[in-house]
């Protein structure tokens, strides 16, 4: 993967994924051994949308590898506020950094940016499109808890606008996984995503109710109903809070069920789940550092 862009999970082979996850496991086991791998390198952070985990974990990852970061800052404090185009912004920052991490509200923005620069571009989320590095840390978490073959995964919540869902579903087609999608009718997987999954030979089933499939799941991946993605506030209010799990509901699940969430959560996972053995979402967030360290190490 050296010097490649990382734009979409659909561009990652099983070999690509396993190489990053294997390196992440090495880093997890002995992080100090990688402390000078990116000495003298700079990572440009270009976030046109808010971020906590992704931005901070990339910043941490670069610094733990001996590199450093430069930050574009908020849109309001940058030349974007003056009308500068995305193409011009990334061409300027390319001159300062060895790679760019880009989050943008427009689907396809990372692909566009990659066409204007010669340094690697890593997509940190493009609208309702893709979030491939989130997928890599999701897969790492799954592999550590449940394995990545011969498992049944349920993905619940906002499947229409959820870029983490679109990325994860695509990546899981590289493995022996049965995928179940649970959502209200208005937030079903987009047609193009369903088509891609079927073309990839995925075993996909769709449900309206978690109860129908919960006892069969090895992994339950819960997502937030994303208010900011809805073009219509009334549409959001119809489905907000409709899909929620708590500790009592999970009594019907396997004892070793892994519950995941890309975070932030609102009310879709009750706090009483946090203290159960099911909860892996904070561990999942922590895994963002070794996985992104592994990715930066392999690219730079």
Q: How many β-strand stretches?
A: 9
Proportion of strand residues: 15-25%
Strand order of the largest sheet: 7-6-5-8-9
CATH architecture of the largest domain: 3-Layer(aba) Sandwich
Looking at the structure, what is the overall shape?
globular
Q: Mean of residue pLDDT?
A: 92
Structural class: alpha/beta
Instruction: Encode the helix/strand succession as letters.
Output: HEHEHEHEHEHEHEEHEHH
The proportion of residues forming helix, as a percent range, comes to 25-40%
CATH class assignment of the largest domain: Alpha Beta
Rg, Cα atoms, Å: 19 Å
What can you tell me about this protein's structure?
With 300 residues, the protein is of the alpha/beta class. The chain folds into two domains: 133 residues, Aspartate/ornithine carbamoyltransferase (Rossmann fold), CATH 3.40.50.1370; 155 residues, Aspartate/ornithine carbamoyltransferase (Rossmann fold). The chain contains ten helices and nine strands. The strands form two sheets. The protein has a five-stranded parallel sheet with strand order 7-6-5-8-9. Strand 6, helix 7 and strand 7 form a beta-alpha-beta unit. The longest helix has 16 residues. The protein is globular and about 55 Å long. The N and C termini lie close together (9 Å). 46% of the residues are buried.
